[in-house]
Write a structure and sequence with these properties.
Elements lengths: L1 H35 L3 E4 L8 E5 L21 E3 L7 H5 L9 E3 L7 H7 L7 E3 L7 H7 L7 E3 L6 H5 L9 E5 L5 H7 L7 E5 L5 H10 L4 E5 L6
Parallel strand pairs: 2-3, 3-4, 4-5, 5-6, 6-7, 7-8, 8-9
Antiparallel strand pairs: 1-2
């Protein structure tokens, strides 16, 4: 038995450093990839091992297939790829990040098809879809992200899409834009009592609609930015 335990100890000591080296190597490759594109990584300095928890690739030339290079970052929580050419295909490359909870896809080529991949990230806390091709159809998937706290939507979402958000009982901030949002859409938000901020940008809502929402959620701060010339 002693010989067996000694042999196992030697095996562990032999394999463990190798596994650690492979993990470090994978991380270094990811870092080099991000930096070569002009992006940056952020570590959690207080966590054991100081893992990389954020990757910023916004405004870079990153492509869908490139995101495979991030695979080794098992502790990744936040990914910023706004203002890039990322499409629905790119989202399939990041489904393995189980801790991902911040995702900024604004001004990318993501569509409703991509929301199926987004919905797989059940821990999602912040999601920015401004300037994407996501419409009301995609909101059915986004409505499954019950831990969402901050959500920004684009022109493709209308009153019908807001109706799909009824289950987001932890939503704190909602930003919407476009003529597709009317007083009817605001009515769909009255059940979201956790809202503390709603930003309405160039929508078709009226002052009466805003007032009704305000009465339904008194503690919510509502900003209503209108186009010039409209009352």
């Amino acid at each position: 038995m002693l010989r067996l335990l000694t042999a196992l100890s030697c095996l562990w000591l032999t394999l463990c450093p190798s596994a650690t080296a492979r993990a470090d190597d994978t991380e270094e490759k990811a870092i080099r990839f991000v930096q070569q594109l002009g992006g940056k990584v952020v570590r959690d300095e207080k966590a054991p091992g100081k893992p990389i928890t954020e990757v910023h690739l916004n405004g870079t030339s990153v492509r869908d297939a490139d995101l495979k290079n991030l695979t080794g970052l098992s502790e990744l929580q936040a990914l910023f790829v706004y203002d890039t050419g990322i499409t629905d295909a790119g989202l399939k490359e990041i489904t393995g990040f189980k801790k991902l909870n911040h995702l900024d896809l604004s001004n990318t080529k993501v569509t409703d098809e991509g929301t199926k991949e987004i919905a797989k990230h059940s821990e999602m806390f912040l999601l920015n879809l401004m300037g994407t091709g996501v419409t009301d159809k995609g909101m059915k998937e986004i409505g499954k992200l019950t831990k969402l706290n901050y959500l920004t939507l684009g022109h493709g979402v209308t009153d019908a899409g807001l109706k799909e958000l009824a289950g987001l009982k932890e939503l704190d901030c909602l930003v919407v834009i476009g003529n597709g949002i009317t007083d009817t859409g605001l009515t769909e938000l009255t059940g979201l009592k956790t809202l503390t901020r709603v930003a309405l940008n160039y929508t078709a809502v009226t002052d009466a609609g805003v007032e009704k929402l305000q009465k339904a959620i008194p503690k919510c701060e509502i900003s209503n930015v209108k186009r010039k010339g409209k009352k």
